[in-house]
Specification:
Layout lengths: L3 H11 L6 H11 L10 H16 L15 H9 L7 E2 L6 E2 L11 H17 L15 E3 L9 E8 L4 E11 L5 E10 L9 E3 L21 E3 L14
Antiparallel strand pairs: 1-2, 3-7, 4-5, 5-6, 7-8
Length: 241
């Protein structure tokens, strides 16, 4: 599996219009850690992906056979739902199995993923151009912290949010512009203590552009968290390779 930064870039390419179904599928599967899709009948695959997404939106669960799918966008949707777990980390010395936390890019917003799959399938069906205006900032909830900005990705501000008992911090996350040039974006957060400074990835309650608490005092401490190590890997320091 490609490292998290490479998969994050693929995710941004998948979610930056204009796109075709083929590009969306290839980049999204790379982003979620699957092999490049080996598609035979493209029309049939698009139909199956769309039907599966529609079925999930109706509240119908996958069949046992569908749970084993790894070769198309149905697998991406299953992973966002949480039905395809990350493989455990196995300590080579002790044989101990350490679970890897599930941290899909939309942090479980599988409804949005299902709608994206349907959108691109319908574009393909109707031979239409992608006129979407969304960006990854609208929906991605797991972001790498730009540790070259600020002090390790953070700036503590002098403002103290007294009613919350927290301080306000700037966190700088890595993003890409429409031409896939890397940049960073500032997010205001409430934090207490120093634990957050160990984070290298930030988990938000919504996409950065949709946050409703980007106000002067920042996002409440109970609405965000982070990962000390890249997603898809052990978050326990003693189990690092």
């Amino acid at each position: 599996m490609a490292n998290a930064e490479i998969r994050f870039r693929a995710l941004n390419e998948a979610l930056t219009p204009p796109n075709s179904l083929g590009t969306f599928r290839t980049k999204m599967m790379e982003a979620y850690g699957f092999d490049e899709p080996a598609i035979g009948d493209l029309t049939r695959t698009a139909r199956l992906e769309k039907e599966f997404a529609e079925k999930c939106l109706r509240g119908e669960g996958p069949t046992q056979q569908e749970l084993t799918i790894t070769g198309d966008l149905r697998a991406v949707l299953l992973k966002e739902i949480g039905l395809i777990p990350e493989p455990d980390y196995v300590d080579e010395d002790t044989g101990e199995r350490i679970p890897i936390p599930a941290t899909p890019w939309l942090m479980g917003d599988w409804v949005r993923m299902a709608k994206l799959i349907i959108h691109y399938a319908e574009l393909e069906e109707n031979n239409e151009n992608d006129l979407s205006k969304w960006t990854p900032d609208d929906m991605v909830r797991l972001w790498p912290i730009d540790t070259d900005a600020g002090v390790g990705g953070w700036n503590r501000e002098s403002t103290i949010v007294e009613e919350e008992g927290t301080d306000r911090y700037e966190c700088f996350i890595k993003t890409f512009d429409g031409k896939m040039k890397e940049r960073n974006r500032r997010v205001l957060l409430q934090a207490l203590g120093t634990e957050h400074r160990s984070y290298t990835w930030l988990i938000l309650p919504e996409g950065p552009s949709k946050l409703t608490s980007i106000r002067e005092k920042g996002i409440s401490r109970n609405l965000w968290t982070g990962l000390p190590y890249p997603p898809g890997t052990s978050q326990v320091s003693g189990s690092r390779d």
